[in-house]
Amino acid sequence: MEKRATIKDVAEAAGVGVATVSRVLSGGSASPRTRERVLAVAAQLDYRPSALGRNLRQRRTGGMGLLVPDLTDTFYAQFAEGVLACARSAGEPVVLGSTGGDPEQEAELIGMLLEQSVDRLIAVPSGDEDTWAPAVRAGMTVVFADRLPARPFSEDDDPAAAAVNDLMLLDGLAAPPPAAHRPPELPSVLADDRAGIRTAVRYLRGLGHRRIAFLGGPGHDRRVAAFREAVGAPVDEELVVFGTGSRDSAYAAASGLFQSRPDLSAVVAGGNVLGEAAVLAARELDLRVPRDVSLVMYDDVPWAELCSPPLTVIAQPGRDMGYRAAELVLRSGGRRARSVVLPTELIIRGSCGPHR
Amino acid sequence: MEKRATIKDVAEAAGVGVATVSRVLSGGSASPRTRERVLAVAAQLDYRPSALGRNLRQRRTGGMGLLVPDLTDTFYAQFAEGVLACARSAGEPVVLGSTGGDPEQEAELIGMLLEQSVDRLIAVPSGDEDTWAPAVRAGMTVVFADRLPARPFSEDDDPAAAAVNDLMLLDGLAAPPPAAHRPPELPSVLADDRAGIRTAVRYLRGLGHRRIAFLGGPGHDRRVAAFREAVGAPVDEELVVFGTGSRDSAYAAASGLFQSRPDLSAVVAGGNVLGEAAVLAARELDLRVPRDVSLVMYDDVPWAELCSPPLTVIAQPGRDMGYRAAELVLRSGGRRARSVVLPTELIIRGSCGPHR
DNA sequence: AACCATGATGGAATCGTTTCCATGGAGAAG
DNA sequence: CTTCTCCATGGAAACGATTCCATCATGGTT
């Protein structure tokens, strides 16, 4: 339990002032002669500047926060790995929180990060914009990933319209809404849900499917909107069902869907937890995939190949998304960073067949 | 971007000294009268003490570090969720690092945590005891989970014997080795690998299997030792193969095993990544599970049920292990905490059949 | 020769908290 | 009434870094 050398120790041992040591170590100006000596002494004392002192002085903690709903959702695990990879190569710490998809826990974690003076945050948001207001007000650099926070409810605001609006924004087709009082859009890293869903729906259509269901979870607003758009015409509302995020509720939703609508012939699962539930529920009800029902799952995960038949999926680059998000939040020391939309890919395996 | 109120602001507004404010907020003694006023003012100013100042003063960062090899390994994701759950309920931050199973990266991350003055660390170690020496020397409270760091190589030290030794320790059957110069054992949270493997091997034996292979990964020393012990007699060394931790190498190991020893009738996979590889390799080689080969996988993960047939697994309570580890590292503010060994459970599904 | 610009250097202030210590007042015991 | 004790209280010193600013030396210019 030896105590670490401080900058003062180095200064004394090198016969210089602490200011000089600090400058040498952080790349300020110094004569080659002193620089060399300071460096030598620092190495010899095994000196490592304490982040504590620095953080206090600069009134900010280095590194970044990372908030995801659930690490056991493989997509978020991949995403987190991407963030960690970038942070590691930058030598920055990552403070992780898992929200369980609960806005309240999310708010608490934001509070905790504020207390820690973590001023950079990557988040897969669960709460709405009100939840995020404190973070933004405190001047945090926030990068959202995978989804955007919902708008808080207000009577002149229609959630469905809002989601469609987000889609339009992605395409640059529409100007931002009359954002007079709304906070400026924060940078984000999203997958191209619209194209992904559209491709999947078209693929199923091409196989002859007409009654296609969507199995969604929290935060899948944009995906549902894209689904509605891709299906076109009035969507059969019974074919759009939601789970709350837990595996149990996903299973219940899937099972309920299959039972209430035996006439459906294809399902698009909005995420891998939903996909898992769909496979399980189908098996439980003796529905054969893809003979009785075709299945496309959002997210490519290692176990998609293990199923039999292996699952046809809409792959989004989880790891890349994480890496990009971390880059954004680090680099954007300047100002507003541009948002990023990454492409998805339909990977055809064996869980979709022709409509019978 | 408002700036936060400091303790000084509160002191002035309440007409008391900063020391008093600090005492009130951290539960020291104060007259009810002032306590009330300070609390009121603090609430009104929305004051939250900055962790920065406190950390510097106490020369330590709160919270804990968490080092795992790979979050996309579902077991580690479950484990991390457990740690996060405990940390969240304690209001403590968690600094996460993913080592990729690489001792070098692990060492770097330890260095980073040291720099941050994080003095509590939960780790699934990849490096050996030498890798961990700096952390211990610096006085960190370290809790290992899932496995223990390997002993560094020395000629009078036999790794196999060491692993067996660890097993004995678990049972409390043997006194610790002559640890004269060895650091004292650190607290840890482990699953009862020995019993788990033993149960699985006996189960396979009971089904008539005689040529049982073990498919291991890094850090599975204790599991291999348990396997050897459970199989008894001289083990056919060709039936014990290892991957390096990546999915590719796991697949290669599994595939190689199946090809080189078509006579084997059962496989115990030492972890879920290995199990995944085994399923994939078996399918690729047209081996039917469980007709041609029976499979037991260490780790219960949601997708084990999705396989067809669903996988028979040795479940270890990943989430609980994480929660317990976090409790240990937090509560053991005192001194050496006792290690914990949690039970495993053989969950019989459909991947094992009688030997033909 | 006097002066100025430049660059290296160290002292000291600062960040926000906790904690040590001295002070002062009130109540109890003599 | 005096003295002793105890407790609430506030001032000030840490903690370890960064950074402002004044100082000093050096070398070039007029």
UniProtKB/TrEMBL annotation, chains A, B:
<dbReference type="GO" id="GO:0000976">
    <property type="term" value="F:transcription cis-regulatory region binding"/>
</dbReference>
<keyword id="KW-0804">Transcription</keyword>
<feature type="domain" description="HTH lacI-type">
    <location>
        <begin position="5"/>
        <end position="58"/>
    </location>
</feature>
<dbReference type="GO" id="GO:0003700">
    <property type="term" value="F:DNA-binding transcription factor activity"/>
</dbReference>
<dbReference type="Pfam" id="PF13377">
    <property type="entry name" value="Peripla_BP_3"/>
</dbReference>
<dbReference type="Pfam" id="PF00356">
    <property type="entry name" value="LacI"/>
</dbReference>
<dbReference type="InterPro" id="IPR028082">
    <property type="entry name" value="Peripla_BP_I"/>
</dbReference>
<keyword id="KW-0238">DNA-binding</keyword>
<dbReference type="InterPro" id="IPR046335">
    <property type="entry name" value="LacI/GalR-like_sensor"/>
</dbReference>
<keyword id="KW-0805">Transcription regulation</keyword>
<protein>
    <submittedName>
        <fullName>LacI family transcriptional regulator</fullName>
    </submittedName>
</protein>
<keyword id="KW-0678">Repressor</keyword>
<dbReference type="InterPro" id="IPR010982">
    <property type="entry name" value="Lambda_DNA-bd_dom_sf"/>
</dbReference>
<dbReference type="InterPro" id="IPR000843">
    <property type="entry name" value="HTH_LacI"/>
</dbReference>
